[in-house]
Amino acid sequence: MLTDAQCLDLMSRLGAAFPDARAPDSKGGGDPFRSVVSCMLSAQSLDRNTAAASRALFALAATPEGILALSEDQIATAIRPCGLYNVKTRNLRRMCRALIDDHGGTVPRTRAGLMSLPGVGRKCADIVLSFTFGEAVVAVDTHVHRVCNRTGLASGKTEEQTAKSLDIRIPDAFRRRGHVLILAHGKQVCKSRAPRCDTCILADLCEGRTKT
Ligand code: SF4
User: Fold this and answer.
1) Residues 72, 89: contact at Cβ < 8 Å?
2) 30 — pLDDT class (breaks 50, 70, 90)
3) Dihedral of CA 110/138/143/56: which sign?
4) Distance from the CA of 160 to the center of ligand 1, in angstroms?
5) For helices 122-131 and 159-169, angle between their N-to-C axes, nearest 10 degrees
6) What is the atom index within ligand 1 of the atom nearest the CA of 207?
7) Where does the HhH-GPD domain start and stop, copy by copy (predicted)?
8) pLDDT over 60 at 61, yes or no
9) Right CATH number for 4-21+137-211 from 3.40.1390.30, 3.40.50.300, 1.10.3720.10, 1.10.1670.10?
10) Which of the chain's termini has less CB crowding within 10 Å, N or C?
């Protein structure tokens, strides 16, 4: 694992390399309910497909009550672009029901509250906390998980374990932008199948370089 000083060095380099990095539209937005829904739709889906599914669904309904008033077929047809649409339709309906029954129709602002919703895991909860509620939280998705474990920035066998590790190790100065910076590096340089170690700005720090 990297030392605290190395973690700060690594994040500072990413900050300089990706000054304009920002979250895709599917992760942001001012409306908490839309953010939760979009995050649920994003599971195993490309950003552009998630965006298409979200647009189609929100054109029909954008409230828990509105979505519950739709038939399962209507929901599944709208969200078809993001895949797994039957499972996601069921989870969406269960999440909407729980929001109304347990939270008065309002999206909770805590990680525990968000994770109590059916179909909402830690990644989804942290994305909503970070990009909708503005909390200083670094969400860990598959890209962040991979980069953290390769470099030695944080460790964990699962995304949730890595999120807990990263929460302790990330320098405070990078809690707000940590996700987008690590994500950008993971998508553009430290790719899943062919990491570009030869030209990577983290190569001298990275613990995983020789293994990839
Ligand atoms: S040196 Fe290679 S494994 Fe390490 S962060 Fe860079 S691309 Fe990823």
Assistant:
1) yes
2) confident
3) positive
4) 22
5) 40
6) 4
7) 41-188
8) yes
9) 1.10.1670.10
10) N
